[in-house]
Structure formats: C-alpha cells, structure tokens
Amino acid sequence: MHPGAPWFGFALIGILSIGQIIGWGTTFYLPAVLGDEIGRELGVTRDTVFLGVTLMVAIGALLSPTCGRLVDRHGASPFLPLGSLLIGVGLLQFAALPTLASALLATTLFGLATPISLSLAGVTLLAQRSGQDARRNIAIMMLFTGLSASVLWPIARILDAAIPRRKTVAVFAAANLCLAMPCTSAWRSAFARASGRFSARGRRRRTTRPTAGQIGAGVLGTAHRGPGG
C-alpha cells in the first residue's frame, strides 16, 4: 500500500470483500437454500447436491499449491477477476441447461476458482500491498467474508420465492460477472492513479528525507511475498 494513502487499504479491503461475499455466497453456500429444488430438477437427493460442495473444496485444495506459486510469482491481481469469471460462467451455463453434466461442470469451475479468487489470491494481495498493516487488513477481510451466508441466504430466499430457480441462478451469475469481476479488476487502476498522485506530491517535497514517491517505489519493487508460495 502506498505510504500517504491510508484510505487505500480500506478501499482495497472493501473491493476484495465484495468479491469474497458474492463468490462464496453463490457457490459454497448456495445449496443450503436451493439444494432441494436443484435436487428435484436433476432427479437426485439433497445429499448428492451437497457432494458438489465437497468436490469444489477438494479441487480447490488440490490446486492450491500450484496456484500459490503462480500467485506468488505473477501477483494476485490477474487471478482475482479470472476467478469471478469462472464462477459466473459456471452458474450461467447451469442456469441455461440444468443437467447432471452441467452441474458437474459448474462444480469443477467453482473448484478452479477457489484458490485464485475465494481464498488464496485475496489474502496474498493484501499481504503484498498492505505492508505492516497486512495482518490487520487480512483479518478485517476475513470478517467480512464470514458474512457471505448472512448476506446471500436472505437474497437467495427472496429471489427463489419471486422467480424460477433458473433465473435465480442467472442473477447470481450476473452478480459475479457484472459486480464481483469489475470490482476485483478496478483496484489496479485505482492503485496506479494513487501511486502517481502521491509520487508527484513526493517529488515536490525536497527534503533530506526520502519522498513518498521514493518510498512507494521501493515498496512496489520489493512487494511482500504472500502466503502459499
């Protein structure tokens, strides 16, 4: 996080938290509300529907070491929007054609998105950009992430009572594609603008101390290594 811009840490937490709440709420927690309807539509039991959640977590766990190395090497920012895209596409294709095959595909895409969007990448990004405030910022983001069920369950129940199940799933796909994905993409341009502004301000301060721009350049050049690398 660029020195001189304490607001940026809170903005980044807010942006990441939106993606986490939408991502977890529309994947991991969704069967708790729509499991019965999905099971009837697919001709399977509720327990079978919840096996999809187990598969999602298993895929995410298997991919986490590899994704951790990629995120550590290339940074977290390219992967966060990709995770939201995978979730959105998985939900959209399942809403369009609800079959066992499309449910399996959706679950697989959710599993692929888990380490690059729902857990590892967000924590790594905060570790890389927050400096000495990393622990605090990660803790705050995780608290907001814990609200996923509290936020999405009431919304899912309201939508499920008002519109068909397939349209409810399509709305959640749109939330990932039109809200979570742009939010997780937006922080980079905001960070670039903030860095340029504070660097220019630092150059105007000709003192014996390093300027804000010089400190910021050093921080960006030696970004903290995130967890999982």
Describe the structure.
The protein is mostly helical and 229 residues long. It has a single domain, classed as Growth Hormone, Chain: A, CATH 1.20.1250. The chain contains ten helices and no strands. It has helices spanning 6-25, 31-42, 46-74, 79-96, 100-118, 120-129, 134-145, 148-162, 165-204, 212-221.
Topology:
Elements: H1 6-25, H2 31-42, H3 46-74, H4 79-96, H5 100-118, H6 120-129, H7 134-145, H8 148-162, H9 165-204, H10 212-221
Helix pairs in contact: 1-7, 1-8, 1-9, 2-3, 3-5, 4-5, 4-9, 6-7, 9-10
List keywords for this structure.
229 residues, mainly alpha, Growth Hormone, Chain: A
- Enter the CATH topology name: Growth Hormone, Chain: A
Large-scale geometry: globular
What integer is the average pLDDT? 81
Fraction in beta strands: under 5%
* CATH arch. level architecture: Up-down Bundle
The count of domains is 1
Q: Which H/E pattern describes the elements?
A: HHHHHHHHHH
- Estimate the helix proportion, in percent: over 70%
Total number of β-strand segments? Answer: 0
Structural class: mainly alpha
Largest sheet: none
**Number of contiguous helices:** 10
Please state the CA-atom Rg, rounded to the nearest Å: 20 Å
Spans where pLDDT lies below 50 across 5 or more residues: 198-229
The H-level CATH homologous superfamily, spelled out, is MFS general substrate transporter like domains
- How far is the N terminus from the C terminus? 20 Å
CATH class: Mainly Alpha
Question: Can you summarize this structure?
Answer:
By secondary structure, this protein is an all-alpha fold.
